[in-house]
Design a protein that fits this description.
Number of domains: 1
Protein name: YibE/F family protein
Transmembrane segments: 21-42, 62-82, 109-130, 150-175, 182-202, 227-249
Radius of gyration: 19 Å
Keywords: Membrane, Transmembrane, Transmembrane helix
Organism: Nonomuraea turkmeniaca
Helix content: over 70%
Number of helices: 12
Number of strands: 0
Structural class: mainly alpha
Strand content: under 5%
Shape: elongated
Distance between the termini: 22 Å
């Protein structure tokens, strides 16, 4: 169980750090911007496309490409929940005030989830609205929110982003530094994009089983895996990362 008092204290620390609040707002704003940019380019391509290319046009996929950039900001938000205390030197004081390290970690997990979920929801929904309205204005096909694929994205996308924020939190505990944790999370989350130039078996494995790709493909409905497997890979991965982070935090000086 999460101690309400500890959770309130964590929220006070979170809201008092300018970087976390700025990053939260930047994540939402950037998502809307990327939705507009990618869909505007897609609408221009559609205007000059051949009949066959128009038949293959996927408005939801084209407009939501910015998710792969927004995920980096959400993960960085999770990193800051832990790394900001190491950077300011207040982690020892937090441990002393709470008394039990398990309560502190649980409170940070709860805070990360409770803050990342609304930020992620706003980011995903704004990107969707910006992208599909831009496609419609440009004369290209667009996807209505009642479409099963769009509905799945709008409901499950924020949950995937929240899990990635918890992944960032785990890295913040493990690496104790904002720069190092953000660099590692960025490399990890973007590896599927870089793997497109690797040999076929490696590329196919990463595209199917890499945690964030498995979840995103489940959300988009393009996964070769059952829904529970694709999403379960990310859930299991994040759970393992948090357990490892807790064990290290418990056994190492704050």
């Amino acid at each position: 169980m999460i101690d309400a008092g500890v959770l309130r204290a964590e929220w006070t620390k979170f809201s008092s750090i300018r970087a976390t609040m700025v990053l939260s707002l930047a994540t939402v704003a950037a998502s809307g911007t990327f939705g507009w940019l990618f869909s505007n380019a897609a609408a221009n391509q559609y205007a000059s496309a051949t009949p066959q290319e128009r038949l293959e046009f996927q408005p939801l996929d084209m407009g939501m490409r910015g998710l792969f950039i927004a995920q980096l900001l959400v993960a960085a938000l999770g990193v800051l929940v832990a790394s900001s205390e190491y950077g300011s030197g207040t982690m020892r004081a937090s441990v002393a005030a709470v008394g039990r390290r398990g309560r502190l970690v649980t409170a940070k997990v709860g805070l990360t989830a409770l803050t990342a979920l609304p930020v992620s929801g706003a980011a995903v929904w704004l990107m969707y609205v910006a992208s599909q309205t831009t496609l419609a204005a440009g004369g290209a096909p667009y996807t209505m929110p009642g479409d099963p694929a769009a509905l799945r994205l709008l409901l499950l996308g924020p949950l995937v982003f929240t899990l990635l924020a918890l992944f960032g939190l785990a890295l913040g505990f493990l690496l104790r530094g904002t720069a190092a944790a953000v660099n590692v999370s960025t490399a990890f989350l973007l590896l599927p994009i870089f793997s497109t130039v690797s040999p076929g078996p490696v590329r196919d494995f990463v595209a199917t089983y890499w945690p964030n790709m498995a979840a995103f493909q489940t959300v988009s409905g393009t996964s070769e895996l059952p829904v529970w497997v694709g999403s379960g890979i990310l859930v299991a991965f994040v759970a393992v990362m948090l357990v490892v982070a807790f064990v290290q935090f418990k056994n190492r000086d704050a």
